[in-house]
Amino acid sequence: MAQQAVEGAARAQWASVFREDLFEGQAGLVTGGGTGIGFAIAFELLTLGADVLITSRNEDRLAEAAATLRKAFPERKVEYFVCNIRDDKEVAAMITNVLERFGRLNFVVNCAGGQYPAPASAITNNGFRTVVDLNLNGTFAVCREAFDQYMFDHGGNIVNIIATYHNGFPMMAHTGAARAAVANLTETLALEWAAYGVRVNSVAPGNIYSESSKLHYRTKGNFLGDDPIAAAAPFIPCKRIGSTQEVSGLVCFLLSPAASYVTGVTARIDGGATLMSNASYVLCDVDNYPKYGELPPEEDTRAVFEAAAQAKLLESKL
Fold first, then answer.
1. CATH number at residue 233
2. Which of 81, 100, 78 is nearest to 91 (CA)?
3. Alpha helices, DSSP H, located in 155-226
4. Distance (Å, whole) CA 265 – CA 201
5. Could you say which DSSP state residue 285 is in?
6. Quick one: which of 10, 199, 242, 295 is 20 to 30 A from 184 by CA?
7. Which residues of the chain have pLDDT under 50?
8. Tens digit of pLDDT for each residue in 100-114?
């Protein structure tokens, strides 16, 4: 329970920017709600008056997270349900369980997912399929069941948490492909389900700090040192990483009436990192890349780059 205690304690001093009754009388589902971004989203939804059911595959982690949330919000309904979103039957049972407990399902936040850093050449077919199955197929299954069992008749809101895949995703080819597919899925569902009063959007977080992400990417094999999330900060225009609360605030906006005319979008929350090519991958020196046509001598090109770099450095000091 240590991880949830740390994350819960960190939020005890934090208040949402939205009014406290924004989601009063509503109920939501947050997959992957036991840790990190998912936990932060569940926390803010409860802060704003909603009842929430969180899910993941790890029952111990879910129980600990639910206990932390219930302690913080004794007046709210906080439930959890163990579910592997790769299993269609479990997903159907999960949606049924939400409706049995709350009688409604006003919004769904798909935050469940997973991946591991590895060069594309080292990812096996099975590893690739597993990550795609979880991040893409699992997300689709949750969206479809929520629509079929409730939102077809009552409308609702869906937010899919993806990632900033936009300039390629080195060391994450499997999840980059899956997340890009979810962005397109978001647009398709927004079109098909608009007539039923269902809005569907995506949020693409960049480098976001949480205890769980720091632990995961440190132990699963990293490529940016001991703390790969924080190591990206110098390459981000804002010169810092983001917080889970910043992500949850954006999600709550998209779920709110203020976003009633917003559907089918992918909102990036990355401190401008995707404007700077890829903020988490440093290219090695290359001397064997094929060339075609007339190019200036390499030493002249390097001189131009060095002059530009010096000018940029001077500009930053002014």
1. 3.40.50.720
2. 81
3. 173-193, 211-219
4. 5
5. P
6. 242
7. 1-2, 6, 9-10, 219-224, 291, 295-296, 300-301, 304-305, 308, 312-318
8. 999 999 999 999 988
